[in-house]
Amino acid sequence: MSRSRADQVSRVRRIAALGQIINATECLSQSKLYGPRGIMRGQAIACKSPLARRLPRVARLLDTRAGATALHLTNLACGVAALVAPHRRSVRTVTAAGSLIVSALERQRNPYGRDGSDQMQGVIHWYDVASAPLPTDKGDDLFLRAINAQLAVSYAASGLIKLVSDDWRSGRAFGLVMRTRMYGDPRVARLIDSHPWIGKAVCWQTIAWETCYPISYFLPRRFRPLTSIGTKAFHVSIGYFMGLPRFIWAFGATHPAADYVLDQKARVGAARFERRTATALAATAGVGVVAAALDHARHRSIRRAGQVSETAQVADGGLVEHRFLASEGRARALVVLENGLGAPMEGWDWVAQDLRRDHDVLLYHRPGYGATTTTLPPADIIRGLLAHRDRAAAPVILVGHSLGGLIARHALDTSPALRDRTRGLVLVDASDPRTIDEMVRSPERIGKVRQALLLDRIGSLLGTTLAQQAMLDDVDYRGSVQRLFGAFSRHFGTVHTAGAELSRYGALAAELPPSVGCPSLVVAAGRGTDGAAAHTAAQQKLASEVGAPCEVVEGAAHRSILGMAHHARAVSSHIRSFTTEVLA
Amino acid sequence: MNRLRAALAAAAPVALGAHVVATAVDNLPDQHITLARWSPRLAGMPTWRFFGPNPGVDDMHLFVRDVDLPGSQWREIDLAVSRPWWATLWNPGTRGPKTLFDACQQIKRLSVMTGGSYDAVVRSAPYELLVDFVVASSGRTRGTIQFALLSSRPGPETSDVVPVLTSRHITIDLKEGQ
Predict the structure, then answer these.
(1) Residue A284 in domain
(2) Nearest CA distance, A469 vs chain B (angstrom)
(3) Three-state DSSP class for A17?
């Protein structure tokens, strides 16, 4: 026997109200934490919240303990009213609007400490307010369908992000979380330590359940009780493990909406709201995929047509995409620039333009990148290009950035002919072979890198990297170069090749001898993800291992050391001084 | 009034549908699109990435010492989350530790974003929040204290501990009742 639409709406609001009441009373019982020295004290003024900028007196009042208590009492009152009279439209609308205002003010007051239950409560209240102008029947229908759609999105999003996570796929995640004090349980952690398969099973069960949840809408009617029980058990178990009663109620409130939609589907088929939302979602995804495909095709054609570079045939008959910048004056040496992992040769633009004043400069793409089709190793490619450019006798300075530093060292180590030609090696914020080797040997660390590459591949296919590309924040090339840099970096082929290169050179890192066999210089970025001091120390350690001096470019980060003109000028200045020294 | 209501009624399905689609896009697994980056007004979009892609598996530890008292040792401030058997029904002790955890994470993020700039960290709101919390937890009304924030990765038997931040010396001079 199915419940009426009004009953299901009342159930949604009543269950949500229980969570709201628990939340408000929990906060009221901890009022000391909201005082001037408490961890939940008001931060609106300190954080310069939008409210503090517009209404500083109100923000100051909100920051007080009395302000917090007033918010919690209002929240409590809204919860109690919704619990008592969820069938009255006016009560629902007023309490939902009141709860939204309280929630917004709480976010302004202190931005920390919020969780998924707060978000789901916010969704329920905002959907109830937004559907209020519609006639009751239509409004209730829209409210329930929209809540159900959010439930499906929450499941799918949570499952898909775990599906691309190395921590979850490897089965480590659950055991690691269970060891923490915040969400863990020592008894469960011990059980998983002694029986690792349990952790793996929980991880994969979570991935499968969350990812496949939307499929449950298409299952035959006889499976409905099973999915309904599964959904409830899932949210209760998460609430139990997290010690969050308000999570159980907030997500439990969505279950009547799912029941309603499933019941309606059996009668009249999918409604207009679901059809239109699914269509909009598919259209959005379609636009992204097509835009990405066009972007990739355009980039590929630019490279292949030789509009930004040239190609040269090398010993195996394959092509190498490259640029040769002849010196504007008398060339003191030929500088060969080795790109980092997944980086285009255009990444050296600032450095190359500055160096070409008194150096010949050679840039190229390794196998798999850009229009390069050869499979020869970098040492053979460099020698082939030098011969192609009639520079077979010029003294060579090899410069490598990031993993390009390790690759340049490997090229010198494996090619006596290249070693004989090379007068010096410059490592620009280069990877330390020992660090790379340690990373490759650590399943967790290499897993994170592979995960990042997988996410980049997905972004490259979906076209999301077209909309936002974080790495472009660190670089500021000339307009056309910036566009080429972006297009190259987000190209699916680039990300794919980067993954293969990481495996290849990661495996070779341990075999590299500490000595590079020629004079060398380390140029380090002054900043790093592990902090300035730690990063500089790591680069100085690399320098001492290869017996090189270490120059630090203050304020530069790993990418901006080449991508920002002023940092790049510092790099080329160090290279120029080094060349003068080694050729003297 | 009726026209306004009619307009709102017509806009409601579109608004809710758009919100669902925007939530889905904002929660794509590759995480390249974050609507909050385009506009701070969109920062309130639901985030449904529970424990993904990489769950928080580090514990935060706060240590404090009395700088002005000779021989004073570092002592840990208890940040443990209470988990009584009735926690599934009523558990008021989670908000405080979660806030502290978020503030510590924000300090860690800020440290990475600023390349380890100490000045940027000590000028930040989460640092001030920690200072107030440590002062209150120290139980002192006068004197000088210092705190250290450490992060640990709990292992089966031992934990790897990494220092995150050591504070400046904090002078306390509280009036009665503060």
Answers:
(1) no
(2) 7
(3) helix
* Residue numbers in A near B111 (CB within 8 A): 531
Is B88 within 8 Å of A177 when comparing Cβ atoms? Answer: no
CB contact under 8 A, A161 and B27: yes
Tell me: the pLDDT tens digits for A491-529?
999 999 999 999 999 999 988 988 888 999 999 999 887
Strand partners, B59: B152
Q: Buried b / exposed e across B119-157, counting CB within 10 Å, b at 16+?
A: eebeebbbbbbbbbbbbbbbebeeeebbbbbbbbbbeee
Instruction: Clarify whether residues A435 and A478 are in a common domain.
Output: yes
C-alpha radius of gyration, chain A, whole number = 30
CATH number at residue A574: 3.40.50.1820
Mark whether A24 and A82 lie in a shared domain. yes
Find the domain containing A195 and state its range: 5-270
Reported ipTM: 0.91
Domain end point (choices A270, A286, A312):
A270
Ranges of each domain in chain B: 2-44, 59-173
Residue A143 identity (one-letter amino acid): F
Q: First CA to last CA across chain A, in angstroms?
A: 93
| Domains held by chain A: number | 2
Residue A530: what pLDDT? 73
- Which of B52, B79, B95 has the CB atom closest to A113's CB atom? B95
Q: Are residues A245 and A384 in the same domain?
A: no
pTM over 0.80: yes
Phi/psi-derived region of residue A109, left when phi > 0, alpha when psi is between -120 and 50, beta in every other case: alpha
SS3 label, residue A496: helix
Residues A454 and A576 in one domain: yes
* Chosen from A182, A187, A462 to mutate, greatest number of chain B CBs within 10 A: A182
Query: How far is residue B143 from each of residues A237, A411, B71, B171, measured CA to CA in Å?
Result: 47, 61, 15, 6
Residues A226 and A92 occupy one common structural domain: yes
Q: What residues contact A507, with CB distance under 8 A and at least 6 apart?
A: A440
Residue A531: φ, ψ to 5°: 100, 150
C-alpha A111/C-alpha A190 separation (Å) is 35
Nearest to A130 by CA among B84, B5, B22, B55: B5
Q: Is residue A279 part of a domain?
A: no
**CB of A314 closer than 8 Å to CB of A490:** no
Q: What are the tens digits of pLDDT across the range A104-129?
A: 999 999 988 888 999 999 999 999 99
Are both A134 and A196 inside the same structural domain?
yes
CA of B129 vs chain A CAs: smallest distance (Å): 7
- Selected residue of A89, A179, A472 to mutate for chain B interface (largest B Cβ count, 10 A): A179
Contact A370, A299 (CB under 8 A): no
Same domain (yes/no): A182, A248:
yes
Instruction: Show residues of chain B in contact with A180, CB under 8 Å.
Output: 56-59, 154
Same domain, A205 and A255: yes
